[in-house]
Amino acid sequence: MSSYLSALHALTPDPLLDMMARAGADMRAEKIDVSVGVYRNDAGVTPVMDAVREAERRLAAGQATKAYEGQRGNTDFCAAIERFCLGDDLRADLGERLVSYATPGGCGALWAGMAVARRALPDGRVWISAPTWINHRHIAAAAGFEALEYRYWDPASQTLDFDGFVASLTRARAGDIVILQGPCHNPTGADLTDAQWLQLAAVFEERALIAFLDIAYHGFGAEPEADLFGPRLFMERQSEFFVSYSCSKNFGLYRERAGCLLAVCDDRRAANRTALHIADATRAVYSMPPAHGQAVVNAILTNPGLRRTWSEELTAMRRQIEEARRGLHRALTQMMNTRSFSFLTDQKGMFSILPLRDGAGARLRERRAVYMPGSGRINFAALNNSNIERFAEALAGELAD
Predict the structure, then answer these.
(1) Residue of 112, 201, 216, 394 marked active site
(2) Domains in the chain and their CATH numbers?
(3) Which is catalytic among the residues 23, 115, 117, 133?
(4) pTM of the model
(5) How far is the C-alpha of 88 from the C-alpha of 109, rounded, in Å?
(6) Active site residue 214
(7) How far apart are CA 290 and CA 280, in angstroms?
(8) CB–CB of 253/247 below 8 Å?
């Protein structure tokens, strides 16, 4: 009998997922895994948030069915994310130009938006930041887009290169899509300032570019309203754009795949057509979105008590990450006092990219049981008082000049 599947060409495993599997199989007691972007508390555990646990208890007590909710999913959840992401004023201004669909996580929202954009813009291209997350390129390619890079990061100064960013976009054509990352989302830990978001809005208007905002770490840089101030300034000045919103990180709902796609169109007619195309595209892939995580998020955002509990928990997570940044800054400064590590405390959120020597990732893994990609990107939520000194010591010998 012929073996048809043997005709498939070999693929290289996703490097991040491969590292995640390797770390899980490593039984060394001194292991430190700063590779995967998952929040962990001081005990090294990704906890179920108290607000989530209580919302789940209430939902279980009142749930009467497991029937489908329809292609748009939980419409109350969609409305709650619209308000939470856009704010009441912008949401009201957009009115019937706004479309929202529940999706399987932020990646599901990215894919659904890209699939519809591809239908509207068959000659368009997608621009992604350098650096970014590997799935941005993967999803763009899966939707049939050519993916190009715009400059975002200056590794020499460990800072955002905004001038280079804007210069890169001079090569973009009208109708090209640009993936923009929300607060604390870029793996560098460097965010646009509010003023830069405003400048970028003018560039997009001038060049007729379409923004696709990817928001997955809302609330990790500042209190939620303040964290989205700059992106909202940008969105207020766009006639058409997409937003993928993920609840995986800020609600700790990683495995529940709770996401939402927002599409803002030029008018009501375009919005109605876009909604039909989102429904058509997703019908062929997952048909109906998951429901549980979305119901949990809606319960939290619409109940003052649960929302207050959740906000306090998110604040504690944010402060823990800020303390880990300060701790690594102190440890490395003490060990290597001729170098400046101020970028560690200037940046925000779970991630930074450290300058590593060639081959450092493999050496750290094999010799020191430290798991981090060769790019130098680390997750601060994996560092705590029990391992931060050991991590700094291991890292000190592998930092590039």
Answers:
(1) 216
(2) 12-48+317-396 (3.90.1150.10), 68-302 (3.40.640.10)
(3) 133
(4) 0.94
(5) 22
(6) yes
(7) 17
(8) yes
